[in-house]
Task: inverse folding
């Protein structure tokens, strides 16, 4: 994709139009949706009309109106403000929760893929065991055992989530380690950790990043919301979409929007992230062919 | 004999496959004196690449050295562990590959790839290694090296990539460079440039070379000595000029006759009939006899040993005088 000019310098020629990231409608739409949500979460103190934890027992369960944009809950807290601050908490926790399994899985997956043999056997059997149980069931059980709270969520998701990354990275490394540049690196007497970290991983990491940013992030947000709903998540009174859904449940016949609004927020966030994932995956496929 | 930098003794490499055990390298011996260039010649599947990779213990996982020694500077490399070998690889013995595209890491800047060896083996700081990379890129004739340091392999042409490979191979001042068909993937004009460059750089710094190729004109240009491989065995070795002028093995003769010559126009090129032998069940006796014009009954029974001839040459043919008479 380069050409030589008179000066002998490489110059980037315009690539095929569809190869550009901004020509991917899914990716652009996903970035816009997710970007808007992230921006709203970051700007929550500016956008919120009230303190999200301030109770006002004189104005409980109000419908949407001029003073309270989306109404109030059973303790008179402003739903719009709680929604914004809830986004802050849930997105932050989901983002951090993705990091640990990403690192652990990438590390173990590259060991399994590069060394093969018994290392691979042991690690992949471990992966099989974890995969045999549904993700949410295991996360809920682990958090239940560890006790509610942010720290338990990180630990539980790290223990279970690494397996997907380990599988992705292992498969990619199995292919990549047969490439000649790996043989060349070995013939250069480079230490194994250097070959894996500097030569193999940069060539194979992109799929794991796509997975982290879309599939895994959605999965983790859902897990966090589910835990919040079950009372195992972020402890009250901190706003969180899961506990908002749970709290609104008792008033579903009269004030159904109390549960509905945070539910819709979860759906839109998931939608935005999966669009990003689709777009990135498409872009990578094109890049390879 | 003690002066040799690399001595390969009775090397055997076996590859386990589903169809049986492939005897990829079967009792190969040769020496590389300090400062000399040895050409390892043979057709595809004759075991030359496996021999080369066995020297540094870089065989594919299914392959194994089952016998023999690889003595580098007085030390046998075969029993060494990977960790011990990594002190030899790159710093004292380096390797150049056939495909300069796939042998360079596509997502790493070439400057960083050249500088990696000095950082790892010579303990250079990053700044000093970058200077070293710059100096090497100048030596191998890459124009505008300051800017090209920061380029990626896909921004280079094939010949320039092979120059980068040579710079990497030279980065730690090795004593021996193993070249696995380094010019096969290049245009003929570029081939010539790269060969001259290699010959000049190795001559300057006294580096020894093992040069694997199936291309006789290439070998004639760069190598002092030749070893000809057929079916996993060494069939002839000796001084390059003598060996090419007067082959003492019918396979070498066949190679010489089937190669085009740049200097004199030969009447016709004579191909070698038949195809290379199976290395799972090699033919009995001499492995070349089914394709050999001089084959007699004893060739089908007796496996000919490599016997010494005057002038430091050796051949594995029972009837090598007849071959000499038929020489071009």
Result:
């Amino acid at each position: 994709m380069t050409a030589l000019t008179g000066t002998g310098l490489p110059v980037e020629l315009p690539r095929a139009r569809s190869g550009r990231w901004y020509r991917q409608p899914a990716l652009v739409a996903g970035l816009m949706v997710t970007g808007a949500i992230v921006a709203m979460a970051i700007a929550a103190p500016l956008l919120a009309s009230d303190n999200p934890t301030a109770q006002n027992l004189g104005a409980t369960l109000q419908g949407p109106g001029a003073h309270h944009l989306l109404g109030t809950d059973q303790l008179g807290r402003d739903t719009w403000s709680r929604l914004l601050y809830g986004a802050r908490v849930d997105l932050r926790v989901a983002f951090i929760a993705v990091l640990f399994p990403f690192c652990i899985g990438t590390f173990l997956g590259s060991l399994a893929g590069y060394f093969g043999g018994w290392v691979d056997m042991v690690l992949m059997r471990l992966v099989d065991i974890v995969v045999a149980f549904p993700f949410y069931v295991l996360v809920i059980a682990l958090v239940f055992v560890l006790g509610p709270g942010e720290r338990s969520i990180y630990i539980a998701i790290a223990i279970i989530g690494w397996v997907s990354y380990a599988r992705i990275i292992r498969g990619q490394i199995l292919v990549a380690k047969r490439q000649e540049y790996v043989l060349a690196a070995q013939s250069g007497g480079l230490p194994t950790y250097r070959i894996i970290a500097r030569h193999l991983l940069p060539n194979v990491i992109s799929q794991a990043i796509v997975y982290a940013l879309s599939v895994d992030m959605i999965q983790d947000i859902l897990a966090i919301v589910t835990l919040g709903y079950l009372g195992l998540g972020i402890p009250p009174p901190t706003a969180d979409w899961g506990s908002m859904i749970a709290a609104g449940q008792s008033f579903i016949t009269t004030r159904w929007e109390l549960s509905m609004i945070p539910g819709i927020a979860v759906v839109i966030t998931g939608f935005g992230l999966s669009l990003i994932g689709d777009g990135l995956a498409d872009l990578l496929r094109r890049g390879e062919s | 004999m003690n002066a040799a930098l690399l001595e390969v003794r009775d090397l055997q490499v076996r590859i386990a496959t589903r169809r049986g055990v492939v005897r990829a390298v079967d009792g190969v011996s040769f020496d590389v004196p300090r400062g000399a260039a040895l050409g390892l010649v043979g057709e595809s599947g004759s075991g030359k690449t496996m021999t080369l990779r066995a020297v540094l213990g870089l065989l594919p996982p299914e392959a194994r050295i089952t016998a023999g020694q690889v003595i580098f500077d007085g030390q046998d490399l075969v029993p060494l562990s990977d960790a011990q070998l990594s002190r030899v690889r790159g710093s004292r013995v380096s390797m150049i590959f056939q495909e300069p595209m796939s042998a360079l890491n596509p997502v790493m800047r070439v400057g960083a790839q050249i500088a990696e060896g000095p950082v790892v083996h010579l303990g250079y700081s990053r700044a000093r290694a970058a200077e070293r990379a710059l100096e090497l890129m100048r030596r191998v004739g890459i124009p505008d090296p300051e800017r090209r340091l920061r380029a990626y392999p896909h921004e280079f042409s094939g010949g320039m990539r092979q120059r980068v490979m040579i710079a990497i191979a030279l980065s730690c001042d090795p004593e021996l460079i193993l070249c696995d068909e380094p010019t096969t993937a290049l245009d003929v004009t570029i081939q010539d440039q790269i060969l001259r460059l290699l010959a000049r750089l190795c001559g300057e710094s006294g580096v020894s070379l093992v040069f694997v190729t199936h291309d006789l004109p290439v070998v004639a240009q760069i190598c002092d000595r030749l070893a000809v491989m057929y079916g996993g065995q060494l069939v002839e070795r000796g001084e390059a000029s003598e060996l090419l002028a007067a082959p003492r093995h019918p396979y070498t003769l066949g190679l010489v006759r089937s190669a085009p010559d740049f200097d004199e126009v030969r009447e016709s090129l004579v191909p070698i009939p038949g195809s290379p032998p199976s290395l799972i069940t090699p033919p009995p006796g001499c492995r070349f006899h089914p394709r050999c014009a001089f084959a007699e009954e004893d060739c089908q029974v007796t496996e000919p040993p490599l016997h010494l001839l005057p002038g430091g040459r050796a051949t594995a043919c029972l009837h090598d005088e007849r071959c000499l008479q038929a020489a071009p």
